[in-house]
TrEMBL record, chain A:
Pfam families: ABC_tran (PF00005). This is Sugar ABC transporter ATP-binding protein. CDD domains: ABC_Carb_Monos_I, ABC_Carb_Monos_II. Residues 8-245, 260-503 form the ABC transporter domain. SMART domains: AAA. Keywords: ATP-binding, Cell membrane, Membrane, Nucleotide-binding, Repeat, Translocase, Transport. One of its GO terms (cellular component) is plasma membrane. GO terms for molecular function: ATP binding; ATP hydrolysis activity. It comes from the Bacteria. It is a peripheral membrane protein. The lineage of its organism: Bacteria, Bacillati, Actinomycetota, Actinomycetes, Kitasatosporales. It comes from Streptomyces caeruleatus.
From TrEMBL, chain B:
GO terms for cellular component: plasma membrane. This is ABC transporter. PANTHER family: ABC TRANSPORTER PERMEASE PROTEIN YPHD-RELATED-RELATED, RIBOSE IMPORT PERMEASE PROTEIN RBSC. It is a multi-pass membrane protein. CDD domains: TM_PBP1_transp_AraH_like (cd06579). It holds the Pfam family BPD_transp_2. It comes from Streptomyces caeruleatus. Its main location: membrane. The chain crosses the membrane at residues 33-51, 63-84, 91-108, 114-135, 142-162, 182-205, 236-256, 290-309. InterPro entries: ABC_transp_permease. GO terms for molecular function: transmembrane transporter activity. Keywords: Cell membrane, Membrane, Transmembrane, Transmembrane helix. It is found in: Cell membrane.
């Protein structure tokens, strides 16, 4: 039998941006009908590689062969014509158009060349949605009204509306709940059994074990390993290849103290918001890390933002040091010593055009100013001290914050509150978008801040993170606390049971 | 406990050497590519003016005229720069200048003399800014719409007050400020006002918490709110500031023209926005430069002057202005992507 050429083979791809060599001779080959996983830390070159594959970036050197023939992907349209579709992490849908219009955007079924045949578009969209296991999505609805998970389905339907042979999925599970992830995997299975190849990017190693056929690991713009068997390569090896080290999660040790002694620093009494979460009571003492575990949509972020005053509660109150906060006022919360590291770091916390210094000092400007006049030397000095304390890299607070890695951007946010003298830290998904290697360092920072007397309230969708870092865990399900226990008495399995079933399964 | 995995390789943030650099180098670093290219354009224009009309263009009187004309729109542009830096827009500046100038020159106001005119111009400007600010900050109206409504209303009110007639100013102390006798070392008082407003504006934007908050609100309003900044109050102040600048500009225009007219300040909004944009202020907010705005104003007034001296009609001027705006934005995009 003659050897079948791979569906796609990329050879020696390089791509440089001003000051950065993003890809440094990457090889990737993908067979028809396989799930090829792409692994690597942030900045390893994954995004650049898939943008080259999608025709969004032109490689500086290197060749791309498609079904054995050399091709040039001049534009996203050129890639799409060949049958390469990409589902980006940041979904590229038009919110004000309907599901059907989005699915057929750019290739609308038309009569006489320009009259859009809406009925045909809706019918074919219904078909696609059914195939994707989501017949409940109405093709006539506006995409902006859909949940993140549903939008992802629409994005996938759009990819399938073309005659695709290869689909690139960039962290498709990041915004999904476990049962939605199951549906995603079923779809991936359907696609591959129909001969479509899937390039799957994820941070979650267990997902790659479940659905991957082969793995290519990128590090610093190079493929350090290509085409490894996904199911049998030991996790330790994969992590070692990604990081150059043999650690996955390292949690700092809990102090052997009994935290029950101190008075609660943060106290939440009957706090509720209609339709988001039910009356909630919790306390956090100085030195304590309390974790909220729950699924996406269980009200975790909403709870943090309401405590912080960014949302107005429909009932209940928040007390700091026994004094009630003005509800719905961020400024009151900040004055009382609260600080929030929000889930969407770039959208909710950082001033991306500004330097690290200005991002750190923004909440404490009155400390370096007299009569509104800023003492810039004092500002720089304080920012330097705060960022050094968290070992933020590079050790130069004058660089633009956008040039920092995810972990260091998170440190910049923490430095902001450290400088402010914040006493209650609210952390919403603190390690989202943070490299595996940098996570352990962030965990250590959070624990150290707690040891120094801060009260920390932590929200994370990664159960091991909550269990590893927190002293006490509240398990949330559909906006309600279903269980509270010291972290050491819980394990991942039990938390997941609680999160799914809502009752302690023991 | 653990080593940092890999230092960020993104080398766009070059690490400047910490040692004491010579003064000129600090100056060069601060005067970024954009400012230098604007200065280059201005120099080229002066060269063109000097070559095409050597006697007339470089004449002291002509240069004084150029600067005086630029001063009025310049003061408006300083206010506009703040608003745009915060992610907003103020389309009503020209109409506010018109309303303030006619309100300050009614027969009734002129009875109070110099102080009456100055006070009225400034108060009318600030009051219009207050309305804009309240609608935008607390009424959650889109700045484009709120200030468009103000544009229409203020122009209408100005017409109603004047009934379309020019209101001649009869206060000698006001008119004297426009005379050559009032020039100090050859500098017209209006140019000095512009210089003072520019310096104060630069200091506020670059050296005060107010400036920082303006930039923060424009760069990421949600992040600014969650960082504890009172975003709404800041927005209110910014439109007040723009209104104040319009009031000052109206007073300058009264001095310059010796009158108040409801057609004053026509299309100032476009000139001010254009000057700010070619100067390097981001229309989307988050980055603003007073220096750039002032250079933008000077470039536009110089062009107007050169064209007028060469007997080119205003239609040609408009086309040239449009071309310059496009060219400036294209150049900026190029420099932005390579730095």
């Amino acid at each position: 039998m003659a050897p079948v050429p791979p569906l796609l083979s990329m050879n020696g791809i390089t791509k440089s941006f001003p000051g950065v060599r993003a890809l440094d001779g990457v090889d990737l080959d993908v067979q028809a009908g396989e799930v090829h996983c792409l692994l690597g830390q942030n900045g390893a070159g994954k995004s650049t590689l898939i943008k080259v594959l999608a025709g969004a970036h032109q490689p500086d050197t290197g060749t791309i062969r498609w079904r054995g023939e050399g091709v040039t992907l001049r534009s996203p349209i050129a890639a799409m014509r060949l049958g390469i579709a990409t589902i980006y992490q940041e979904l590229d849908l038009v919110e004000h158009l309907s599901v059907a219009e989005n699915v057929h955007l750019g290739h609308e079924p038309t009569a006489a060349g320009f009259v859009v045949r809406g009925k045909v578009a809706r019918a074919s969209t219904t078909q696609l949605l059914k195939r994707l296991g989501h017949p409940e999505i109405d093709p006539a609805r506006l995409v902006g009204d859909l949940s993140a998970a549903q939008q992802q389905i629409v994005s996938m339907a759009r990819a399938l509306s073309h005659d695709v042979r290869l689909i690139v999925m960039d962290e498709p599970s990041a915004a999904l709940d476990p049962d939605e992830v199951d549906n995603l995997f079923r779809i991936v299975g359907d696609l591959t059994s129909a001969g479509v190849a899937v390039v799957y990017i994820s941070h979650r190693l267990e997902e790659i074990r479940r659905i991957g056929d082969r793995v290519t690991v990128l590090k610093d713009g190079r493929a350090v390993a290509g085409g490894l068997p996904a199911k049998t390569t030991p996790t330790r090896d994969v992590v070692a290849m990604m990081t150059g080290r043999n650690v996955e999660y390292v949690f700092p040790e809990r102090p052997p103290k009994d935290a029950t002694g101190g008075e609660p620093l943060l106290e939440v009494r009957g706090l509720a918001r209609h339709g988001e979460f039910e009356p909630l009571d919790l306390t956090v003492r100085p030195g304590e890390i309390v974790g909220l575990a729950g699924l996406v949509g269980s009200g975790r972020s909403e709870i943090l933002e309401t405590i912080y005053g960014a949302r107005k509660p429909s009932a209940g109150q928040v007390l700091v040091d026994g004094r009630p906060l003005k509800p719905g006022s961020v400024r009151a919360a900040v004055r009382a010593g609260l600080g929030l590291a929000p889930e969407e770091r770039k959208a909710q916390a950082l001033l991306m055009l500004e330097s690290v210094t200005r991002n750190v000092s923004v909440s404490s400007m009155s400390r370096f100013s007299r009569g509104g006049w800023i003492d810039r030397a004092a500002e720089l000095g304080a920012a330097r001290a705060a960022t050094r304390e968290l070992s933020l890299r590079p050790d130069n607070p004058s660089v633009p914050v956008r040039t920092l890695s995810g972990g260091n951007q998170q440190k910049a946010v923490l430095a902001r509150w450290l400088l402010r003298g914040c006493r209650v830290l609210l952390l919403d998904e603190p390690t989202r978008g943070v490299d595996v290697g940098a996570r352990a360092e962030l965990y250590a920072v959070v624990r150290r801040l707690a040891d120094e007397g801060l009260a920390v309230l932590l929200v994370s969708s990664e159960v091991p993170e909550v269990l590893g870092l927190a002293d006490r865990v509240l398990v949330l399900r559909e906006g309600r606390v279903v269980h509270t226990a010291p972290a050491r008495e819980l394990d991942e399995h039990r938390v997941l049971d609680l999160v799914m079933e809502g009752s302690p399964a023991s | 406990m653990t080593q940092h995995a890999s230092p960020p390789r993104d080398s766009t943030g070059k690490v400047p050497s910490a040692g004491a650099a010579p003064a000129w180098r600090g100056l060069m670093a601060r005067a970024d590519v954009r400012t230098l290219s604007l200065l280059g354009v201005l120099a080229a224009l002066i060269l063109i003016g000097g070559i095409t009309k050597p006697d007339e263009f470089l004449d002291t009187r002509n240069l004084q005229l150029v600067l005086t004309q630029g001063s009025v729109i310049g003061v408006v542009t300083v206010g506009m720069t703040f608003v745009i830096t915060s992610g907003g827009i103020d389309l009503s500046v020209g109409a506010i200048v018109a309303l303030a100038s006619v309100w300050a020159t009614t027969v009734a106001t002129q009875e109070y003399g110099f102080a009456g005119i100055l006070f009225t111009a400034v108060i009318v400007g600030v009051a219009c800014g207050l309305v804009n600010g309240v609608l935008i900050a607390y009424g959650a109206m889109v700045p484009f719409i709120a200030t468009l409504a103000m544009l229409a209303s203020a122009r209408g009110l100005a017409l109603q007050i004047t009934d379309g007639k020019t209101q001649i100013v009869t206060i000698p102390s006001v008119l004297d400020l426009g005379e050559r006798d009032a020039y100090v070392l050859g500098i017209p008082p209006l140019v000095m006002v512009f210089a003072v407003v520019t310096i104060i504006g630069w200091l506020i934007l670059n050296r005060t918490t107010f400036g920082r908050r303006t930039v923060a609100v424009g760069g990421n309003a949600e992040a600014a709110r969650l960082a504890g900044i009172d975003v709404r109050r800041q927005r209110l102040y910014l439109y007040l500031l723009s209104g104040l600048c319009c009031g000052i500009a109206a007073f300058m225009l009264i001095i310059l023209s010796g009158s108040g007219q409801n057609t004053n300040g026509n299309l100032y909004e476009l000139d001010a926005i254009a000057a700010a944009i070619i100067g390097g202020t981001l229309l989307s907010g988050g980055r603003g430069t007073i220096t750039g705005s002032v250079l933008g104003v000077l470039i536009f007034t110089t062009i107007t002057n050169i064209f007028a001296l060469n007997n080119l009609q205003s239609d040609v001027q408009q086309i040239a202005k449009g071309a310059i705006i496009v060219a400036a934005v294209l150049v900026q995009r190029r420099t932005a992507s390579t730095t």
